[in-house]
Each structure stands twice: as structure tokens, then as C-alpha cells.
């Protein structure tokens, strides 16, 4: 079963929920798709021993000897990654999107391609959890190839898959939820939270996913715009995680709360159960 | 006009709350929300008029004319982004969110069945406020206040350009005598953040005292330094983890980064945010801390020469 | 010889634009013929690589020198490769700058390297477009 944990807004508790769900599941794979700012490895310690694979994309290499200055490549490139100054072609890696077009279109065969690293994937185990974590190099802008590599590593026999998605609703998020059986949306009790809950709820609906919401930092008796949103839009609430200093402390110290205290293990097991039920089509 | 940009690396640190408070304290007449993936600043900027809305066009997406398509599959084979595939009827079909608009398929198609079409990837909004000051102290005293923001459609990817457009609109429309513009930046470290950093005079990093908050703060310092603004740091929700707050202060000392202050966790913040007002209007510990930090920001940014000549 | 300056408006009284890559217009002054031309910078609307596209358009027009307040590293690379000299703007007006250029009074523009400059560092404010 694949659970995707997402929130429109960062800092709502996506990683808190993901690492704890992966921990309480009997056998699990935790996939950290937030490749710009991966944090899961801070909770699942032991990443130093991980098997690391470089993820690369192809960049053009220009053979000045073969180049006839015809400008086909310069005129084709929509990203302005190629310029003709003087007789030679100058390449700008930092705006190149690796579409491969210039290499294919060069009439003189002067452009070939070489792989260059854009990030890496780490693969390791902590107890019964297999951790797949992706990280994008600073300065890079395209995380999707790394996310694809992460998913290609998943072994269906490795138990429950918990996907810690990037925040927002960008194409990287879409890529992360593509195969999910259920989307668990984490929301905080502010208008920022509900506004962004709306964003991801619409995204999950667009992909026809089963949805459940976890209301984090919940305070009884206080106005909760995210709770209202769920009521108004008929979204099932799997759990209300109370605003809790102890939980916050565990998390800010990079400890897995469910591992530290039984009450948290129970809390997150409950959420896992509801997610499982929703994934198999039941209503929680 | 000096520009102050608020960044956090990690999301959820309170960047927008701090930005809104700064805008209120400064009675800023120019401010912007560069978090185009998930803009939130407008939610705490009370009583905005109707904005001017501009469609934002991204790179364009490939569109296949099924009547012309001969099913050769050359496009699908060549697409690096998995954005085009052959359906059951052997007709090429484009997955629009995945399409980067590179134009290779259009170029390769032997029968000209593919065209790149403009697509509306989002929209940019410009609010111009004139007249009486409103309840959050956004005062114009007869002059105008400009708020520039934007929102990307779901799945759209080209945010660097949109962020640039948001900034340019702000600089173009702000009154010439505005001393300071406040910009709420994007989370992360990618090109939207880079686009928001260029041309800014001071970056204020709002850090969260947690292992992940510190790790993300370091990444953003590395990114911001590349572009040469002044950089300063403050810690939000500082009392939720004193140990980590001390670590951040230590890091700033080592790296020669001005540490401007600590904001305590304060439940008044949630209440004010939900009511749609800036916390500056409330007398509470967080507001006091933010005011003190802002005074230092103001001193720093007015002291130094501009990043670029005033427009 | 042709000199290009990024400008804000399509008229001769225009002010100089602080951005090189996304300037709305370029003014090209031909010191031999005295001719002045102002044209749209189509690169300004590009999603990415605006500096590169802008520099390319100047290369294609046979420009030999550029006067600008600053310049991004990508554009600077194109200009250098083409042997186009970059000068730092002095004073606000087009006239002042062209006059200073003719007198050899303009300094080379070195305000382009992104490197690490800590806070409190003065001067160099280079960066990417």
C-alpha cells in the first residue's frame, strides 16, 4: 500500500507524520521526495552507511572542431542555453533543461551529451524501515528525475510505502503522488493552513485519490479554519493531533516520537489504520 | 528604494507572519509575496481592493493535432520529460504538466502535427491602495501603496520568471519616494528563491530551532551568499528549543552573520493570523521581539549602498 | 563603432536601466555615423536565460561595447566570448555616459563575479540576472 503524505504548506507536520507512520507500520519503506530540503534522514539515523547513487542528467558537449557556426542549435533552444558569440557556441548549463534537442538537430554532429550529477539517492535500513532519500544539489532546479529514481527503487515486497512529498502543488508533488493509494493531507489550524489545504485537496482530487486529513497542532475550543474546510468539503478527518509541547520537542530534536513513547505509537498506529482502510476503499 | 527579503529555507518557520508584521510596522507602501506556489501574504493583509490581474504564460506546451498524427512515435521516443506518449489508437498524446515546452517534438514531427501553444501557467496580481490608512496601519496618506503577488496554477513549473515579474511590477509601480520595500520570499533553495534574491539589499533569514530548521538554514545561507546581499538571521519560536536556538546563535557568530534577535512562541500569533491581521497590532511578546528585530533590519538596510540604482 | 546601453524608455531623454538582461530597451549609439537606434529587448520576456538572449541580440547587431550599471555572469560570458567590452555606467544620463566614453573616462565593468562577499562587504554587487 502506498500512502502519500502532503500539505500545501511547509512546516505543517508532513515529515512528522511520514516518519512516524513508517515507524509504526510493520514493514515499511519511507521515501523522502522533498529533494530540495530532505529531512527524513535526520529522524532515521544511519544515512552515513547508505548506498548512494548519483542521479544525473545529460548536458550538451560541443566539439568546436566540427561546429560550422550554422546556429541551428542557438535558434532552436527555447531556454537560451546556447549563444553564438564569435565563431563558437557557448553553452550555459545553468539554464539548460537537458531536452537533448541541440544534439539531435546539429547538422554537423558537433554536439554530443554527457551525464552530469544533479543529486543523489540514498538507500539504507533502520530496523524494519527501508529509507529512500533523495537530495538535489544546491543550484539545481529540476527534482523530478531524482523523484523518478526513488520510485524505481521501491520493492513492492518491502511493505507499506510512505511517501513524504515536497510541499506545494508543483509538478514534483504530482510526480510524488502519482501511484499513491491514499493521500493524507496534513493541515495546521491557521488560514494559511486551510488555504493551502484547499490547494492540495484539489490536486489529490484531480488525480482521483482517496483523501484523509490530519489536523495538526489542534487546540480544542479554538477556531480552526482547516477543520471548517474539511466539514464544508466533506473531507474525512483521520485524526486531530493536539498541539503538544512534548511531541514538538521530540520532533525538533529529530527523534521519532512513536519510538520514544507508547502514547505516540498508538496515535500514529491509529492514523495508519485509517489510511489503510481508506486505501482499500472503505470510509473511515 | 531599499529592498528587504524574508527567507526561511524550510517552510513553516513563520516567514509570512514576520513579513506581515514588518509591513505593518514600516507602514510599507511597497511589498510583495514571491511565494508564487502558495502565496499567503494576502490573507493577512486586511481589506485589499480588487487587483489588476495579469495572465502569466509559462514556456508553452506541446499540442498534438490527432488528425495529422501518423503514429510514428518519434516524438514519444525523443521526449526526455516523458511528456508525450502513444495512446491505444497510436496517436500521440501530451501530458501537459510534464511538458517543458522545449519544442523538440514539434521540430521532429515529420508531418507538422505538433505545435507549441501558449498556456496560462498562473496569474499575477497587482493591488494599488490609495486613500485612508486601513486597520492594519498600511498607511498611504494620500500616496499609493503597492502590493505585488502571483499564483501559479497547479503543476506549473516555471516560477523563476514569475517571481521576477512580481518583483519588477513592485519596483515599477511603487512611488519613487518609498524608502523600504518588504518582500515575502519563497521557501526552499531553488530558482524561485534565487530569482527573489537578485537585486535585494538585505535578506533576513527566519530560522527554526530544530535539527531540520538548522540544516535548511545553512543551505539557504549558502545560496544567498552567492548573490551578495547583506544577510541577517533571527530565530522564531525560539523558546520551543533553547538548545537549538543557542546553536543558531553560535553558527551566526562563527559565520559573521548578524543575529538580530529571538521571537518567542506566542499563541497570540495564531489568533491574529486567523483574524486576518498582523500581530504588530497586538501587544504581545512576539510583537515586541519582532519590532526590535525590524528596527535593526531598518538600520542595516538604510546604512548600506543599494544593490542597484533606484528605479 | 556601436555602443549599447540598456534604457528604460523608447526615447532619447530616457534614463538608464539597472538591469542588463531584462531591460525593456537598448539604445545603440554609432560613434562613426552619429546614428542612434532604440529597440525592444525581446529577451526581457524570456522565462530563463534572459541575459544570454539579450547579449546574443547585441552580438548579432555588431555591438562592440556596452555601458551598464551591472551585468549578470551569463550575459557577461557571451559578451566576453564575442570580444565586446563592458564599461561601468557613470552618471545617470545617456549623454553623460557617451561623452565619458568618448573621452576614455569610463572604467571597465568588473561588477559581474558572483563569489562570496560577506555582509559588511562594500562595493561589488554582482549576481545572476
Report what the structure shows:
The complex is a heterotrimer of chains A (284), B (311) and C (129). Chain A is of the alpha/beta class and 284 residues long. Chain A folds into 2 domains: 2-55 and 119-279, P-loop containing nucleotide triphosphate hydrolases (Rossmann fold); 56-117, Alpha-Beta Plaits (2-Layer Sandwich). Chain A has 11 helices and 11 strands. In chain A, strands 3-6-7-2-8-1-9-10-11 form a 9-stranded mixed beta sheet, with helices on both faces. In chain A, β10 (210-218), α8 (225-233) and β11 form a beta-alpha-beta unit. In chain A, α5 runs parallel beside α6 and α7 runs parallel beside α8. The model of chain A has no long low-confidence stretch (mean pLDDT 90). With 311 residues, chain B is an alpha/beta fold. Chain B has 2 domains: 2-57 and 123-303, P-loop containing nucleotide triphosphate hydrolases (Rossmann fold); 61-117, Alpha-Beta Plaits, CATH 3.30.70. Helices cover 32% and strands 22% of the residues of chain B. Chain B contains 9 helices and 13 strands. In chain B, α1 crosses α9 and α4 packs parallel to α5. The longest helix of chain B has 19 residues, at 285-303. The mean pLDDT of chain B is 85. Chain C is an alpha/beta fold and 129 residues long. In chain C, strands 3-2-1-4-5 form a 5-stranded mixed beta sheet, with helices on both faces. In chain C, α1 runs parallel beside α2 (73-81). In chain C, 43% of the residues are buried. Classes of the chains: A alpha/beta (284), B alpha/beta (311), C alpha/beta (129). The interface between A and B is large, with 54 and 55 residues.
Layout of secondary structure:
The complex is a heterotrimer of chains A (284), B (311) and C (129).
Chain A: E1 2-6, H1 14-24, E2 28-32, H2 40-43, E3 51-62, H3 72-76, E4 82-85, E5 88-91, H4 101-105, E6 111-126, E7 129-136, H5 144-152, E8 160-164, H6 171-177, E9 182-187, H7 191-206, E10 210-218, H8 225-233, E11 237-242, H9 245-252, H10 257-260, H11 262-279
Parallel strand pairs in A: 1-8, 1-9, 2-7, 2-8, 9-10, 10-11
Antiparallel strand pairs in A: 3-6, 4-5, 6-7
Chain B: E1 2-7, H1 15-26, E2 30-33, E3 52-57, E4 61-64, H2 74-78, E5 84-86, E6 92-94, H3 104-108, E7 114-117, E8 120-129, E9 145-152, H4 159-173, E10 180-184, H5 191-197, E11 202-207, H6 211-225, E12 230-235, H7 242-255, E13 259-262, H8 268-274, H9 285-303
Parallel strand pairs in B: 1-10, 1-11, 2-9, 2-10, 11-12, 12-13
Antiparallel strand pairs in B: 3-8, 4-7, 5-6, 8-9
Helix pairs in contact in B: 1-9, 4-5
Chain C: E1 2-7, E2 25-30, E3 36-40, H1 50-60, E4 65-68, H2 73-81, E5 85-88, H3 94-102
Parallel strand pairs in C: 1-4, 4-5
Antiparallel strand pairs in C: 1-2, 2-3
Amino acid at each position: 500500500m502506498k500512502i502519500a503524505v502532503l500539505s500545501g504548506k511547509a512546516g505543517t507536520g508532513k515529515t512528522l507524520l511520514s516518519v512516524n507512520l513508517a515507524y509504526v507500520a510493520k514493514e515499511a519503506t519511507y521515501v523522502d521526495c522533498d529533494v530540495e530540503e530532505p529531512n527524513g534522514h535526520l529522524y532515521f539515523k544511519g544515512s552515513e552507511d547508505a548506498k548512494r547513487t548519483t542521479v544525473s542528467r545529460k548536458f550538451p558537449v560541443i566539439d568546436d572542431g566540427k561546429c560550422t557556426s550554422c546556429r541551428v542549435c542557438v535558434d532552436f533552444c527555447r531556454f537560451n542555453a546556447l549563444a553564438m558569440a564569435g565563431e563558437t557556441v557557448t553553452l550555459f548549463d545553468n539554464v539548460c533543461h537537458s531536452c537533448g534537442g541541440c544534439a539531435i538537430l546539429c547538422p554537423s554532429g558537433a554536439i554530443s551529451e554527457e551525464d552530469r550529477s544533479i543529486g543523489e539517492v540514498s538507500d539504507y535500513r533502520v530496523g524494519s524501515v527501508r529509507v529512500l532519500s533523495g537530495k538535489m544539489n544546491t543550484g539545481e532546479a529540476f527534482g523530478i528525475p531524482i523523484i523518478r529514481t526513488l520510485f524505481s527503487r521501491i520493492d513492492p515486497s518491502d511493505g507499506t510505502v510512505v511517501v513524504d512529498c515536497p510541499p506545494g502543488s508543483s509538478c514534483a508533488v504530482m510526480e510524488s503522488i502519482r501511484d499513491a493509494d491514499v493521500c493524507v493531507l496534513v493541515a495546521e489550524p491557521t488560514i494559511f493552513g486551510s488555504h493551502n489545504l484547499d490547494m492540495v485537496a484539489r490536486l489529490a482530487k484531480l488525480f482521483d485519490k482517496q483523501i484523509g486529513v490530519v489536523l495538526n497542532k489542534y487546540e480544542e475550543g479554538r477556531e480552526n479554519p482547516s477543520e471548517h474546510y474539511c466539514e464544508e468539503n466533506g473531507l474525512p478527518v483521520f485524526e486531530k493531533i493536539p498541539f503538544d509541547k512534548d511531541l514538538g520537542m521530540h520532533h525538533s530534536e529529530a527523534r521519532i516520537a512513536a519510538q520514544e513513547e507508547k502514547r505516540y505509537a498508538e496515535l500514529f498506529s491509529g492514523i495508519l489504520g485509517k489510511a489503510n482502510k481508506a486505501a482499500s476503499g472503505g470510509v473511515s | 528604494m531599499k529592498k528587504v527579503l524574508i527567507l526561511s529555507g524550510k517552510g513553516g518557520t513563520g516567514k509570512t507572519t514576520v513579513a506581515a508584521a514588518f509591513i505593518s510596522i514600516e507602514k510599507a507602501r511597497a511589498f510583495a509575496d514571491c511565494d508564487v506556489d502558495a502565496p499567503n501574504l494576502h490573507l493577512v493583509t486586511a481589506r485589499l481592493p480588487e487587483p489588476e490581474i495579469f495572465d502569466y504564460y509559462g514556456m508553452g506546451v506541446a499540442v498534438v493535432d490527432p488528425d495529422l498524427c501518423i503514429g510514428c512515435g518519434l516524438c514519444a521516443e525523443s521526449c526526455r520529460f516523458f511528456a508525450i506518449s502513444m495512446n491505444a489508437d497510436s496517436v500521440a498524446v501530451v501530458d501537459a504538466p510534464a511538458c517543458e515546452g522545449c519544442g523538440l517534438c514539434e521540430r521532429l514531427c515529420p508531418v507538422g502535427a505538433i505545435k507549441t501553444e501558449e498556456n496560462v501557467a498562473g496569474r499575477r496580481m497587482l493591488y494599488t491602495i490609495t486613500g485612508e490608512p486601513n486597520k492594519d496601519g498600511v498607511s498611504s496618506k494620500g500616496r499609493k501603496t503597492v502590493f505585488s503577488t502571483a499564483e501559479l496554477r497547479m503543476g506549473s513549473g516555471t516560477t523563476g520568471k514569475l517571481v521576477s515579474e512580481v518583483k519588477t511590477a513592485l519596483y515599477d509601480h511603487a512611488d519613487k519616494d518609498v524608502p523600504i520595500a518588504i518582500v515575502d520570499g519563497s521557501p526552499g533553495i531553488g530558482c524561485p528563491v534565487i530569482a527573489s534574491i537578485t537585486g535585494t539589499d538585505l535578506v533576513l533569514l527566519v530560522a527554526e530551532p530544530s535539527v531540520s530548521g538548522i540544516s535548511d538554514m545553512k543551505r539557504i545561507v549558502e545560496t544567498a551568499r552567492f548573490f551578495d546581499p547583506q544577510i541577517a538571521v533571527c530565530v522564531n519560536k525560539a523558546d520551543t528549543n533553547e538548545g537549538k536556538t543557542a546553536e543558531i546563535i553560535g553558527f551566526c557568530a562563527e559565520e559573521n552573520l548578524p543575529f538580530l534577535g529571538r521571537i518567542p512562541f506566542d499563541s497570540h500569533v495564531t489568533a491574529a493570523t486567523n483574524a486576518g491581521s498582523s500581530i504588530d497590532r497586538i501587544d504581545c511578546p512576539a510583537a515586541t521581539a519582532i519590532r526590535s528585530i525590524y528596527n535593526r533590519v531598518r538600520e542595516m538596510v538604510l546604512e548600506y549602498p543599494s544593490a542597484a540604482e533606484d528605479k | 563603432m556601436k555602443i549599447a546601453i540598456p534604457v528604460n524608455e523608447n526615447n532619447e531623454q530616457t534614463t538608464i536601466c539597472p538591469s542588463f538582461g531584462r531591460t525593456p530597451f537598448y539604445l545603440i549609439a554609432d560613434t562613426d555615423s552619429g546614428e542612434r537606434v532604440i529597440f525592444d529587448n525581446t529577451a526581457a520576456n524570456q522565462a530563463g536565460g534572459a541575459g544570454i538572449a539579450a547579449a546574443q541580440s547585441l552580438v548579432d547587431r555588431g555591438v562592440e561595447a556596452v555601458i551598464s550599471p551591472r551585468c549578470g555572469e551569463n550575459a557577461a560570458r557571451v559578451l566576453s566570448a564575442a570580444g565586446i567590452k563592458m564599461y561601468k555606467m557613470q552618471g545617470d544620463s545617456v549623454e553623460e555616459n557617451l561623452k565619458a566614453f568618448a573621452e576614455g573616462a569610463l572604467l571597465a565593468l568588473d561588477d559581474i563575479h558572483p563569489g562570496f562577499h560577506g555582509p559588511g562587504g562594500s562595493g561589488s554587487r554582482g549576481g545572476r540576472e
